[in-house]
Amino acid sequence: MDNGYTNLKHLYIRLSEDNDVELMKTWAKDYYKHQMMSKKTYDFWLNREYDVYFKSHENATKGKSEGAMAGVHSYTYYLIEDSNIVGIGSLRLNPENNLELSIYGGHIGYGIIPSKRKQGYGSLFLHLLMKKAKDFDLKEIIVVCAEDNRGSASIIKNN
After folding, report:
1. CATH top class, domain 6-158
2. Helix (H/G/I), strand (E/B), else coil: 82
3. I need a labelling partner for 27 at 20 to 30 A (CA). Which of 38, 49, 60, 110 fits?
4. Are 26 and 87 contacting, i.e. CB atoms less than 8 angstroms apart?
């Protein structure tokens, strides 16, 4: 990998798949273990209807999402390490089709599990998602974060 990510070169991104149920449960467990997810939310992730969840990813690629993502073509990517999800990201091709998303979401959204934060994973994930955005011929890429999210602000500046 370039940009100083040599210690993370074993990581890769891929699209979400219908058979990722156990990976998603492990992802949720990391958040819960680090007290960044309530027991109620954790139980939701363990018991949710994953066929509906993954169908929503498929619909998003066609711009058929509802709610905050209505009208936006979106692809969900996982950052994978040792067959585990360490990050989940979204590449949105046309956020300008949704006023709220065009202001607060931009083209790329991402998150890294708590146990892997502050180790370069977020910077690498954003870098890989930005490379993927270029595959879709996006000339300008908008990435935003909350004002008080210093970690994400640093990641964005590094890219």
Report:
1. alpha beta
2. coil
3. 60
4. no
